[in-house]
Structure formats: structure tokens, C-alpha cells
Amino acid sequence: MSIKQVGGVSVHQQHQASCHCGAVQLLLELPHGIVNPRRCDCSLCRRKGAIVASVALDGIRILAGQAQLTLYQFNTHTAKHYFCSVCGIYTHHQRRSKPDEYGFNVACLEGINPYLLPEVALLDGINHPADRLAPSD
Ligand SMILES: [Zn+2]
After folding, report:
1. 8: Cβ–Cβ under 8 A, 6 or more apart, which residues?
2. Least packed by Cβ within 10 Å: which of 69, 73, 94, 135?
3. What was the pLDDT predicted at 126?
4. How many CB atoms lie within 10 A of CB 2?
């Protein structure tokens, strides 16, 4: 699923995103709009509650705040979860199940209200596909 408009606001091909305090500024390449928005019920996401969509690995440019971005890893330490060290807002992460793309926090997109997304899937993150394939990882 790919969404080009949310509540009458267009998703730009290059859309700016930021954390809450504004220290971290990202430019996202979203040629197909918001792709596959979802929530996940893994141990991290269920606490975070963010709606996540996908962007290519070379589709994120950090305009500001590289020094404020902090990395959090857990479990297999494959996925890389980035958040702003000042305001604590999760901005994006490199995925474990699909390392060739980032997930990003839809709520960080300038002007986009994530609660107006038409349909948000719930991923079965407790039973992560990588855990089923490589339980000893
Ligand atoms: Zn911040």
C-alpha cells in the first residue's frame, strides 16, 4: 500500500522530517509516498507505539543533528534504532527483517498527521520472521 495524501496534505517526493525538539532534521526520498504503514507489537515497538513506513537505505539524508542521533540496539543487535538524544523521539531504524531499507516514524513527517492514515497494519513482531529462521541468532 502506498499513500500520497494524508488528510488532504500531500506527501512530497522529498519530504522533510524532524524529531520533536528540531535538533534532528531528515530529508526522506518518498517517490511512492508513504509505503506500507504499520505498527508492530515487538517488545520495543509496543512501548514506542509509532507508526512506521519504509524508505530506501539511500533515501534518508541527515540535514542536521547527526551528533544528537543516538543508536539503540537489543536482542540480536542487527537492527539499528535511532532516536534524538535531546527529546527522545524515535526517527528511523535500519530493519532486521529487511536490512536493505529503513523504517521511519511517520509522525516525524512535516505536516502529516499519522492518525489520519486510512489503514495501518499490525505486524506480528513477537514472532519475528528472523527469529523463526534463526532462533539461535
Ligand atoms: Zn529532538
Report:
1. none
2. 135
3. 66
4. 14
- Ligand 1 midpoint to CA 66 (Å): 11
Name the percent of the chain in helix, strand, coil, to the closest 5.
15, 40, 45
- Cα-to-centroid distance, 12 and ligand 1 (Å): 22
C-alpha 58 – ligand 1 centre gap (Å): 22
Question: Looking at residue 134, what is its pLDDT?
Answer: 38
Domains of the chain: 12-125 (2.170.150.70)
What is the whole-number distance in angstroms between the Cα of residue 18 and the centre of ligand 1?
8
Q: How far is the CA of 6 from the centre of ligand 1 (A)?
A: 24
pLDDT of residue 100: 85
- Phi and psi of 35, rounded to 5°? -100, 125
